[in-house]
Write a structure and sequence with these properties.
Distance between the termini: 59 Å
Order of helices and strands: HEHEHEHEEHEHEHEHHHHHHH
Strand content: 5-15%
GO molecular function: transferase activity
Number of domains: 1
Organism: Pseudomonas umsongensis
Structural class: alpha/beta
Pfam families: Glyco_trans_2_3, Glycos_transf_2
Largest sheet: 8 strands, mixed
Shape: globular
Keywords: Cell inner membrane, Cell membrane, Glycosyltransferase, Membrane, Transferase, Transmembrane, Transmembrane helix
Protein name: Glycosyl transferase
Length: 395
């Protein structure tokens, strides 16, 4: 009986322990010192910056105003006003951008807007295509750093994409900012220490133009960026991380906007884990594609809140089984997982999160995870599979 329970519970617990181990390694490596690399001193390639926008008239000009000064002669700045019912197109033209308008009620989603814009650019194609979302700001030298690394490596390149908590935000948004930092800064930085690829993040992405036929842009996929990165890697073009190019945006202030945003991200991520991760693991091992294996292992790490909930439930269940039946292996595995996850979060906070959230506030994180249970139950009962725009604060 004890042997049976050890195997019955030990195997799934070992599976849960795998993403914890991946996360621990990534955070540990991210904290290692790194030598800054000088930017190549040569002319950068000709670029086109593509900005997909759906009803973004209130913010589109601020985005374009931070991009336009970084353009050089021959570059293009294109806004795709996608299924807009406001004056996004007029505001973008007033800000000096080239604008195309798309209207298709059946094909909704960012992927379709990107495909529409790329086909428009094809008549005078750039060397590098850079995608920036309409609600983002970029740092000085963003285009140059991203374009040069992309063309020199011949691979898709992802900028550091961070989301900030608006001033006066509550505790849950501060925790969300810390979790975002771990996901988009710490984890890809750790993998990059080993020369491994990162996931694409939707904004701040650069592609060598001639490589675009390797993937299908036109898609209503709920997490089209995640899918694009994996497809590029399968084609021998694993994305690489460029932390010196920074793109930032803000979490919505409204609860409705936050809920919509989180549901899209997390349901999409979980859907890819369940639907694609097993076959990606098999494919990467069969083809000995270690870059794809690294991206798949990274994909297997669920949102921190869900990982905390799964591990907490496993911990309670395994210790209950130990007390009732004497099966010790599941309790040992779960205990190791809990300790490792706590160490990982503390290490990430100590090196990357002090400016984001106080340690006392971090102690609230388990309760924050409990409040997200309805979101994860919603994935089981009524999974979101279509792209839905997050509600803006002025909507």
């Amino acid at each position: 009986m004890i042997t049976f329970l050890n195997w019955l519970l030990g195997v799934p617990l070992a599976i849960i322990l795998l993403p914890v181990l991946v996360l621990f390694v990534q955070v540990l490596l991210a904290g290692l010192p790194v030598r800054a690399q000088a930017l190549a001193q040569r002319p950068r390639p000709r670029v086109a910056v593509l900005v997909p926008a759906h009803n973004e008239s209130s913010i589109i000009q601020a985005t374009l105003n931070c991009l336009r000064p970084q353009l050089q002669e021959g570059d293009r700045l294109l806004v795709v006003a996608d299924n807009c019912s406001d004056d996004t197109a007029a505001m973008a033209r007033a800000a000096g951008a080239e604008v195309v308008e798309r209207s298709n009620a059946q094909q909704r989603g960012k992927g379709y807007a990107l495909d529409f814009g790329a086909r428009h650019l094809a008549g005078d194609a750039p060397d590098v295509l850079i995608i920036v979302d309409a609600d983002c700001q970029v740092n000085e030298g963003f285009i140059e750093r991203l374009a040069i690394q992309c063309i020199d490596s011949g691979r898709p390149t992802q900028a550091l994409d961070l989301m900030r908590a608006p001033a006066g935000s509550g505790l849950k948004v501060q925790i969300a900012e810390f979790a975002w930092c771990v996901k988009n800064r710490v984890r890809p930085q750790g993998w990059a220490r080993l020369g491994l690829p990162c996931q694409l993040m939707g904004t701040g992405m650069a592609f060598v133009w001639r490589d675009l036929p390797l993937i299908t842009l036109a898609s209503g996929h709920i997490v089209e960026d995640l899918k694009m990165g994996l497809d590029f890697c399968r084609s021998g073009k694993p994305p690489m991380f460029c932390p010196d190019a920074l793109v930032t945006s803000y979490f919505p202030r409204s609860d409705e906007g936050l809920t919509t945003q989180r549901t899209r991200w997390e349901h999409g991520h979980l859907g890819v884990i369940l639907g694609d991760a097993p076959k990606l693991l098999v494919e990467s091992l069969a083809r000995r594609n270690f870059n794809l294996l690294a991206m798949t292992l990274d994909l297997l790490v669920p949102p921190l809140a869900l990982l905390t909930l799964l591990l907490g439930a496993a911990f309670v269940l395994s210790w209950l089984v130990l007390l009732l039946f004497g099966a010790w292996l599941p309790a040992l595995i779960a205990s190791v997982g809990v300790v490792m996850l706590m160490m990982t979060i503390l290490l990430a906070w100590s090196q990357f999160g002090r400016a984001i959230i106080a340690f006392s506030a971090l102690l609230y994180a388990p309760f924050y995870a409990l409040k997200k249970i309805p979101l994860y139950l919603g994935f089981l009962v009524k999974r979101q599979v279509e792209w839905v725009r997050s509600k803006r604060d002025d909507s």
